[in-house]
Design a protein that fits this description.
Length: 131
């Protein structure tokens, strides 16, 4: 069993091209969730590529995702793939674009603070007397 000896933990911050797990401290839970969502997307794109082409390559999946982020409609995405040497069927291109657009974590919200609504009397009582 692994024992934690200090407050630092190993987090999966992303693989990039190195395929390594990076050492870090506790990250914001929303960042962790976004990382997990991205890794799930990479996995699904890998599965699609494997099913259609017999290629299971994480770097290729990340490259396809980056192309889809820059080319958001079918025609431009397919053109970008062809320019980079891909010979994907229209069905695969369509599936990949749909998958990436529905699963991609949304862009990080602006850093401006959220509007804080004043608490109602009921909310104040809930704070004073938690259940």
């Amino acid at each position: 069993a692994c024992k934690e000896r200090n407050p630092e933990v190993f987090l999966l911050l992303g693989f990039g091209r190195t395929g390594r797990i990076l050492r870090g401290t506790m990250a914001d839970p929303t960042e962790e969730l976004a990382t997990l969502e991205y890794l799930s997307l990479v996995s699904k794109v890998c599965t699609e590529l494997d099913n259609h082409l017999g290629i299971n390559d994480k770097d290729l999946a990340e490259f396809v995702i980056s192309l889809a982020e820059r080319n958001t409609n079918f025609d431009t995405f397919k053109t970008a793939l062809v320019k980079n040497g891909a010979e994907f069927t229209d069905s695969l291109v369509s599936n990949l674009l749909r998958l990436i657009q529905t699963m991609r974590p949304p862009a990080k919200a602006s850093t401006s603070k959220d509007i804080i609504k004043p608490k109602t009397e009921k909310d104040k009582l809930k704070d004073l007397f938690p259940a």
